[in-house]
Design brief:
single chain; alpha+beta; HSP40/DNAj peptide-binding domain; 10 helices
């Protein structure tokens, strides 16, 4: 995740920055590093990913609070802040464990405990229980765990246009599999397994190719069957769900299945009418601008919006016209043109404006 760089530094803002400052910094950097504006530039693409992750976290009050308290650990799928705080308090209370090779053969030894035997076994069991709670109950020995593994969620960031068009992306995930030392029991005799710390599972990295359907929306869940957590006793594994996070686009906005793109036009194109070329997710198309069009006016391109993942009709693309006035040029010619235009008004354009 952004190579675990400090997210505030990624956006160039202070830790005390307000949400609006976060969004403002993101918009400024997105316009500079967006892949559509830097085709083939891998460095810009990676930079854009970093600022997108930083914006996603710091613009969300809940995520930002977790990040400030726990760092990147707090952003991991399935993270439980309450249990993590309890574990920290428990570990700092003097009932934690230290690892000492050769201590009693297993390598774990309690500190802050003068007795062995039953007291030691209870401490170890408490440690395993806390770990089980922290990692979602893997190895808890419940009937549910024996029947099937738990489902797992992973965040998956997708480019705006890829979400509209659909794509395939390669990802590498870590998921729990039965511990090879204790075969998923979490125990080695009467002691907690040293390989999995009593959870019964270890993490394994796996590469997957995920198919993103056309028209997927932000927050949608893409399921990969059988790639979730393993279960005890050889039961069916759970499923893996990728929670889609769509990166915003600097020029296109989405509302449901409809898209809106702002397109600059000249004064002459708006006044006299014209045919211009506009970009769409499927390529450039010709758009006819009616004579006398106004700045802010919306024109519709039917069926050029977002596909329906369920097979329904496709949305529309709306082109919002923005009349641009010349910024530079011959001052005298501009003055003459303005005087001519001013004479074309047959009424005060603000005559209807009242409060």
């Amino acid at each position: 995740m952004a190579n675990q760089k400090d997210l505030y530094a990624v956006l160039g803002i202070a830790k005390e920055a307000k949400t609006e400052d976060v969004k403002k910094a993101y918009r400024k950097l997105a316009r500079k590093y967006h892949p559509d504006l830097n085709p083939g530039n891998k460095q810009a693409e990676e930079r854009f990913k970093e600022i997108s992750v930083a914006h996603d976290v710091l613009s969300d009050a809940d995520k930002r609070k977790l990040y400030d308290e726990f760092g990147f650990e707090g952003l991991q799928p399935g993270f439980d802040a309450t249990r993590t705080r309890e574990y920290r308090r428990w570990a700092e209370s003097g009932h934690g464990f230290s690892f000492r090779p050769g201590a009693g053969g297993a390598g774990f030894e309690t500190f802050g405990s003068a007795s062995r035997g039953r007291r030691r076994t209870e401490d170890e069991r408490g440690f395993g229980d806390i770990l089980n709670e922290m990692f979602g109950g893997f190895g808890g020995g419940t009937a549910e765990a024996e029947e099937g593994g738990q489902n797992i969620e992973y965040p998956l960031e997708v480019d705006f246009l890829d979400a509209i068009r659909g794509t395939r992306t390669a990802v590498s995930v870590r998921r729990p599999v039965p511990c090879p030392e204790c075969h998923g029991t979490g125990r080695q005799g009467r002691r907690a397994c040293t390989r999995c710390s009593g959870t019964g599972h270890v993490e394994e990295r796996e590469k997957l190719t995920v198919k993103i359907p056309p028209g997927v929306s932000d927050g949608a869940r893409v399921r990969v069957k059988g790639k979730g957590g393993a279960s005890r006793g050889g039961g069916k594994p759970g499923d893996l769900y990728f929670v889609v996070k769509v990166r915003p686009h600097p020029h296109i906005q989405r509302e449901g299945k409809d898209l809106t793109v702002e397109v600059p036009v000249t004064i002459g194109e708006a006044m006299l009418g014209s045919t211009i070329t506009v970009p769409t997710p499927d390529g450039r198309v010709q758009l006819k601008i009616p004579k006398g069009s106004q700045s802010g006016q919306r024109l519709r391109l039917s069926g050029r919006g977002v596909p329906d993942p369920k097979g329904g009709p496709r949305g529309d693309l709306y082109v919002r016209l923005l009349v641009q006035v010349p910024k530079n040029g011959n001052a005298e010619r501009i003055r003459e043109a303005v005087e001519t235009l001013e004479g074309a008004y047959d009424e005060n354009p603000r005559a209807h404006l009242t409060l």
